[in-house]
Amino acid sequence: MELKPLHDRIVIEAAAKEEKTASGILLPDNAQEKPQKGHVLAVGPGKRLDSGKIATIDVKVGDTVLYGKYSGTEVTVKGKDYIILRAEDILAVLEGAKEMAGAR
């Protein structure tokens, strides 16, 4: 991983956009919704508290997570798109989730 997140930040590879509806209708690019699910690629050490201790982060590399629709910052590194967000922007971890398409 070329990105090393700092503090309580997490690097996510977003899931692929849905290209067709459940009934099979193909969606053009401008009608596809921004994904809210992703694969955790890197996790920072945690947020430093006022006491000086480091608060641990509840997600780990390899987790599939749900995050807010407009959370994080999108970045491109060597042609690959990533999202960097704070641990507090993670809404849930999908337990027992199958490997996402395109995830490592």
Question: What layout of secondary structure does this protein have?
Answer:
Layout: E1 9-14, E2 37-43, E3 47-48, E4 54-55, E5 64-67, E6 73-77, E7 80-86, E8 90-93
Q: What's the β-strand tally?
A: 8
Classify the oligomer: single chain
CATH superfamily, by name, is GroES chaperonin
CATH class: Mainly Beta
User: What is the H-and-E element order?
Assistant: EEEEEEEE
Number of helices: 0
Q: What's the CATH architecture name?
A: Roll
Quote the distance from N terminus to C terminus. Answer: 11 Å
Number of domains: 1
Helix/strand class: mainly beta
Provide mean pLDDT, rounded: 81
Q: Name the poorly predicted regions.
A: 99-104
Helix content bin: under 10%
The proportion of residues in beta strands is 35-45%
Remind me, CATH topology?
10 Kd Chaperonin, Protein Cpn10, Chain O
Give the biggest sheet: 6 strands, antiparallel
Question: What topology, given as strand order, has the largest sheet?
Answer: 6-7-1-2-5-8
Shape: elongated
Radius of gyration: 15 Å
Explain what this protein looks like in three dimensions.
This protein has 104 residues and is an all-beta fold. It has a single domain, classed as 10 Kd Chaperonin, Protein Cpn10, Chain O. The protein is 0% helix and 36% strand. The protein has no helices and eight strands. The chain has strands spanning 9-14, 37-43, 47-48, 54-55, 64-67, 73-77, 80-86, 90-93. It has a six-stranded antiparallel sheet with strand order 6-7-1-2-5-8, with no helix packed on it. The radius of gyration is 15 Å and the shape is elongated. The model is unreliable at 99-104 (pLDDT under 50).
